[in-house]
Amino acid sequence: MDFSKYHALGNDYIVIDPNKTMFNLTKENIELVCHRNFGVGSDGILYGPIFEGNNIKLKILNPDGSEAEKSGNGIRIFSRYLLDQGYVDTTSFAIDTLGGQVHVTLLDPKGKLVKVDMGSVTFLSDSIPVAGKSREVVDEVLELDNRSVKITCVSIGNPHCVIAKNDISEELAKEYGPLIENHPMFPNRINLQLLKVIDRSNIQIEIWERGAGYTLASGSSSCAAASAAYKLGVVNSNLKVHMPGGSIDIDINPDGHVHMTGSVSSVYSGKFSEELWQNLMSR
Ligand SMILES: N[C@@H](CCC[C@H](N)C(=O)O)C(=O)O
């Protein structure tokens, strides 16, 4: 077995385990493995577990080869991988990511339902980052290709830009996505969520992910959009985030920590063909 593939609400990831498979994490290799025509195909690679003392570290790679600080669906998937491979034998453990440590609780004996304390969010421009003077970026006007949009920006370890609209669609996410992701206001690029508030306990989002493009679901996007809606005063602290691939439950605790609960599905474990493997090893 060289890799395992899982999805969380249609957001699919390949887990490559450095304890089992030597893999050069070059931009070209990541792009090839994630490519849906020339490789295995996925919305990213989860590279781990990397053991540092007693800690378990995870690296999250986007299909364009960039490294993400956090991924909500990625963390839930990786938690199930740790259980499937016998790396953990408790229902509660921590994982270190570039965007901080997260705390996981397996709510199902097979790891099919996972809750994660994703940490706390910030709206501060310097932390996200968003260019310009130091401020909270909440309901602020951004010029976008001859249009004005209202943005609220959030970091939950990785950066997000939320745009609330009455009508949202895949087409609109694909139109706004590249413009927002690469806008000069966002020096580290950014993930986009188009947000529609259904009622105080339900929101709907369409997502464009930094380094990945349009995806069917995103855990950190769910946390970001729910936190933005809560900050704007239009939802309660416990809510459901509906996405094209399914829904995630979000609880915003009084201490500011955001808890995300959602499913994980196993797809298959596989081996790279000798031909693809030679290709990957040669660069
Ligand atoms: N799908 C993820 C987010 C993955 C990282 C993102 N593309 C970024 O670059 O920040 C999720 O479920 O959170």
TrEMBL record:
It is an enzyme of class 5 (isomerase). Pathway: Amino-acid biosynthesis; L-lysine biosynthesis via DAP pathway; DL-2,6-diaminopimelate from LL-2,6-diaminopimelate: step 1/1. GO terms for cellular component: cytosol. Homodimer. It holds the Pfam family DAP_epimerase. Substrate binds at residues 11, 62, 72-73, 158, 191, 209-210, 219-220. It comes from the Bacteria. The keyword Isomerase applies. One of its GO terms (molecular function) is diaminopimelate epimerase activity. Gene3D superfamilies: Diaminopimelate Epimerase, Chain A, domain 1. It comes from Desulfosporosinus orientis (strain ATCC 19365 / DSM 765 / NCIMB 8382 / VKM B-1628 / Singapore I). Belongs to the diaminopimelate epimerase family. This is Diaminopimelate epimerase. The record marks 160, 209 as: Could be important to modulate the pK values of the two catalytic cysteine residues. It catalyses: (2S,6S)-2,6-diaminopimelate = meso-2,6-diaminopimelate. Catalyzes the stereoinversion of LL-2,6-diaminopimelate (L,L-DAP) to meso-diaminopimelate (meso-DAP), a precursor of L-lysine and an essential component of the bacterial peptidoglycan. The lineage of its organism: Bacteria, Bacillati, Bacillota, Clostridia, Eubacteriales. Its EC number is 5.1.1.7. Keywords: Amino-acid biosynthesis, Cytoplasm, Isomerase, Lysine biosynthesis. One of its GO terms (biological process) is lysine biosynthetic process via diaminopimelate. Its main location: cytoplasm. It is found in: Cytoplasm.
